[in-house]
Design a protein that fits this description.
Blueprint lengths: L1 H31 L4 E12 L3 E11 L6 E12 L2 E8 L3 E3 L4 E11 H6 L11 E13 L7 E11 H7 L5
Antiparallel strand pairs: 1-2, 2-6, 3-4, 3-5, 3-7, 4-6, 7-8
Length: 171
């Protein structure tokens, strides 16, 4: 029993030291990690059904680091005219090479009835564009990066005529 205790104590000390060293290495890697640059390249109308309208948000994610990163979640919300109307999440893994850029399209879904109730589809006919804002985050996957989330925030303009044509009688 004494021999077993003599073996376990040094092994436990060695294990604790190794864990401390791994944590220090991990913290150094995280300090050197630069935040990915995320830009919205566009928002366009996607397929529609009677009950829902999809908007497709095209993102470019640039990795300025010397190591590749992987994302496992992109969550987005879309507001038009300051009113939140659609949400979506992409949980397909996405690999972004070291010093590279990846493109991804995320579908966000709006309830057609809510769009009508908010007056977004029946707005002022003279308004040629509608201001929109995309907000959300990208979640990273793997090792020390697991669980890190980087914000997404972008504003732009949608063509009001395209949106209203989609829901006019006869279309």
């Amino acid at each position: 029993m004494k021999t077993l205790t003599h073996l376990i104590a040094p092994l436990f000390t060695l294990l604790l030291t190794a864990c401390g060293n791994l944590q220090a290495i991990g913290e150094q890697q995280l300090q050197g990690l630069r935040e990915p640059r995320i830009s919205v390249k566009g928002v366009k109308l996607g397929p529609s059904r009677l009950a829902e309208q999809k908007f497709l948000v095209d993102l470019a994610i640039e990795n300025p680091n010397a190591q590749g990163i992987s994302a496992n979640e992109i969550a987005l919300a879309l507001a038009i005219n300051g009113k939140g109307i659609a949400r979506g999440i992409n949980t397909k893994p996405l690999d972004i090479k070291a010093n590279g850029t990846s493109q991804v399209e995320v579908a966000v879904v709006a309830n057609t009835l809510e769009l009508l109730q908010q007056g977004l589809l029946l707005g002022n006919a003279q308004q040629k564009t509608l201001p929109y804002q995309v907000t959300g985050h990208i979640g990273l996957l793997g090792g020390l990066l697991q669980g890190l989330k980087f914000p997404i925030s972008y504003s732009g303009q949608l063509d009001a005529n395209d949106l209203m044509k989609r829901f006019s009688p006869g279309n």
